[in-house]
Structure formats: C-alpha cells, structure tokens
Amino acid sequence: MRKALGLGVAAIVATAIVFAVGQNNNEGTSEVPVSTLARAVKNIAGGEVAQVGAVPFQVSLLSAQPDSITSNPNDSSKWVLGQCGGSLIAKQWVLTADHCVLRNNAGAIETRYVWIGIGNNNFNDSFVNPYLFRVSEAYPARVGDVGLDLMLLKLSQAVTYSANVQPVALPVALDPNIWPVKDAIATLSGWGKQLDGTTSPVLRKVNTEVGDSPNDLACRDSAGNARFTDFYDSAKDVCVKGGIRDNELAGACPGDSGGPMTVTVDGVPVLAGAASVALGVRKENGEVNFCTGYLPVLYARVPSNIGWIVPAAVTNIAITAASGGVQISWGSPVATPALPVTDYVVQLREVGVAEFGEVNDGVSLNQSVLISGVDPTKTYEARIAGVNAVNAADTQQRLFSPVVRFAGSGVVVTTTTSTTTTTTTTTPTTTTTTTTTTTTTTTVPTTSTTATTSTPASSPTSTVVVESPRVNPFISGAQNGEKDIVPALTSVPQAAASTSPPAIEVSTAVGQTLGFIATAQVAGVATPKGSVVSVRVARASSKICSVKKSSLVLKKAGQCRMTVLVKAGKAKAKATSATLTVK
Fold this sequence. Notes:
The protein is mostly beta strands. It is built from four helices and 36 strands. The chain has helices spanning 34-40, 66-71, 306-309, 516-522; strands at 9-13, 16-20, 48-49, 58-64, 81-90, 93-96, 114-118, 132-143, 146-155, 185-190, 204-209, 237-240, 244-245, 248-249, 260-265, 268-282, 288-289, 297-301, 318-322, 325-329, 343-350, 357-360, 368-372, 379-387, 403-407, 412-426, 431-442, 464-466, 474-476, 503-506, 513-515, 532-537, 545-548, 551-554, 558-567, 574-582. The strands form eight sheets. Strands 3, 10, 11, 12, 15, 16, 17, 18 and 28 form a nine-stranded antiparallel sheet that branches. The chain has a six-stranded antiparallel barrel with strand order 4-5-6-9-8-7. A hairpin with a 2-residue loop joins β19 and β20 (325-329). It is elongated. It starts with 8 loop residues before the first strand and ends with a strand.
C-alpha cells in the first residue's frame, strides 16, 4: 500500500529483475519456526497461495525512481524500486494505482523504468522473458495527488491470451450507484507483506467483505469501528473489511498496492477496485504496523469511475425517419476517458431476437448513422458504445448505452434500461448471492447523472493511523531517510475479532513459560496429533506476555490477548482468538 520504508537491496541484471526484501517481525508478533510458519500463516493478510492461472489477470509491477538510476547508472544497489500489483484489463492495457509508479524529482513519469510481469505467480520470476513486458505510455488519473488513485499503463506489445493470461471483466454492465453492495464477498490478491513482516515470493489471495456501499458516509470495519474522516471518499474509494474471515485474518498489506479487488457476478470476477490505502496501528515506540489484517483497507473505486477507463454511455439518442431507412444520432459520453473516443459501434436487433448484430463498425467519430433495410412493420432495438484504445480489441469491455426501442418507420417506442445488481447475504455458515435484473421503461432516452457525497463527521482520535496519500508503495533501495508519513486518523481501533474471545485464568509466577501446544490447550484450542501450532500475541498485550522461541512467556499479571493458529495436515490453518488472564 502507500507505505515507504528503506529496506534491503534490489538488483537488476540485464532484463532480469530480482526483488529481494527482508524485514524483522513486528514487536508482539510470535510464531513457530519459519519452516512451519510458512504453512500456517499466509499473507496478503490471511489467505492462501494462488496457483498459476488462479488469478489470470493479476500482474506484477516494479517501478524505479528515475533519478536513482541516472545518478547511479553503474551501481544498481543504489536504485530505489517500488513493488506493486495491477490488473490486466485488455491485451495492451494494465490498470494499477497511481502511487505505484515512482516519479522523478520533477514529478514526471518515465515509462522506461516501469516493468510488468504477466502470467507467472512468482514475483521475481515474472520479470524475465517470456513474462516480462515493458511500458510505453502512462495515463495517471490524478495530478499533484488530487484525483483518483488509478493509472492506465500501455504495454509496448500486446499480450497473448491463454489459460494463465486473461483480462479481468470491467463493471460495464453494473450500476455504479449500488455496486458493489455492502457485505459482498471480495477477493484480494498480491505479493505484499505477510503477517510476519516479510514479503511473499508467490502470489496469494484472500476473501473478505466489502465494508461499504456507494454513497456511504463512513467506512467502517465489520464491528462498526475505524471510521475514516477527511480522507475516505465513497465516490473514489471502496472500503474492504479487515478482521477474521473463515478463521483467518483478511486484508491487504504494503506491496499489494495497485492489485485487484474483485467481486464475482454470475460466476465471473469483476474488477471493483485497485489497492490504494492501508490503515495501521502505532506502537508505543512510535512505529506503525500496516499489516495487522484487522483494519479496513481502501481500494480505488472502479465502477464509479469506469468512464475514465473506457468511454461511458452515450447520451441523447434520437431516432428519426430518413430516406432509405432510420437515422440514429447520439451525444458524447457523459464522462471523458483518459484515452479519447476513436470510434462508435452501433448494434441492432429485431425485438424477440436474443443477440445483437453490428450495424456499423466504422462510423468513426460521426455521431449519426443511417440504418437501411429495416421493415416499417417491425420493431427494433439499438444500443451504442464508444470505443477507445483500451476496449478497441477487447469488446467485452465496452459500455453500451441504454437500449432504444423503435419502429421500422422511425418512431421511438420505448427506451429500456436494464441494470444488473448483486445482493450478498452472509450467515455464520453460508453465503448466498442473488443476481437481479431490474428493467425501467420510459418514453424517452435516459441520461446519466453523477451522485454527490457528503463529508463524514468526526469521531474521537485514537492510535489507529492512515497513510498519507503522498507517500510511495512498498520500496527497497537507497533512501534519504524514511518516508513513513502517517497523520493520525480520527477513528476507533478494531478488535481482533468480531466477538470477544473467552477469558481464561492462568495462575503463574512472573517468568513462567508455556509451550505453544500447552498454550493452545490452556486456551481451549484443540491440537490434533501431528498438527503445527503457532501463537501471535496482540501488541497491546506485549507487556503481559511475549514469545521466546516456541514458548509463551508470562511476564506479569494482566490480560494477554492472542491468536492461536493450528495447522493439521492439508487443511487450512484455523485461527482462534483467546484471552489469558494471568494472575
């Protein structure tokens, strides 16, 4: 996410890019040895390894700060590199977060220092042929940190689609005023930090829930806490819940910036956002942990801004009788895309026919076309889409106008707008998704409107912090001091779980230790034979208890809050929250 730290060294040899980052574990975090931890605790925060092809639209992104290269052309150890993700949305186009591409000292983008890896779930390996792609053009959606945290990148050559390389569907057929709905299941993926503080060499994914709906006035976690103020904008951001899901922590971390957040509609993953902002918790020593898995994450909202990516729906469609047929004319799209409109496509079908046929695929910028050969006694439907460089070759990414119904004599019958919405209902054991199509019929073509939002009210200041929108992604290399700019967020910290864990009393002398298995048993957590157990202590409890090697040290009287993770065989690790009252 938008976090910058001085870390490790990144090296580039010829066209092979190697990204090596290491970090120490955060204070208060405990685990079993790495060999077992890798099987028990996953990143993005929580989740699982995404096998090759599981997220075929996920791309890896490496961006270099241009001045660090030009100042040290022969010493790659002094180059500053930022790790991010992104989404393949067309054969030659990637959508990522604006803050993922590092600018030079003058604030300009130099695309020769941006590399994209496609079709490989290993971050390092994705930057070698045939997975490596160069960037030829960049289109940011904001200027001077004002605007959307999105950027379009044009690849120097088109990709070839395969089972492992596919574009993600854009929400061109969904109503941005209601989608994605609150509590819908959202899938996040990336190579960012794990809960133990290290980065993941392989792609990981996790499911969580959407924490808001469009036009919400606040962004909250699943417990109703952690409200953003003066930062969150529901027209620009999707709030994703943190906390426990399926017995695992769920969220995005530094290094996952720019990566996709998708919500499935009719079995198809649809892009809802690009990872943008992480929340963190400030420790007593002033350091901030941005990868707790407990707090909400902001994703730059795609559906509300789809007209910036591809041409939005055209307006003012008019039908008139003409010599030789029917004349259709229309107005410009309601939003200006980053890449200009180069063509319009008109599709037509006779009422009762399932599929549309293309009337003209070469009307260019003319906003009118004559449809000849229509039968005056029949009724037809037409729709129009703008085309730009993004959706020229990828027709599924075209945003069509409302359907206009008219008689072959040139008289408008009705205008029908179909909107698909998805409602998700979650219970402790099941999740049910219902897709509904609502049809609204009027006697004139409809026009799009822009929703307005209100500024959320303030709440008491706490130790939860939010990153500045002006800092860079997860970075390694030479730094002139840290760029960890974290103004206080007026919000309430989220609890470790949606319900309070049971408090279990432990009589002990200061300094007594419990092995991880004994700790699990005291906490009432089952540990089947052959299972691997790890323990993570909440930071607020670090003065009461801590971890030393594979044991829990009870330091003094008080309440020790922790998460016990048990990995048995091939099953996913199960996380259980518990509180030990040390006497």
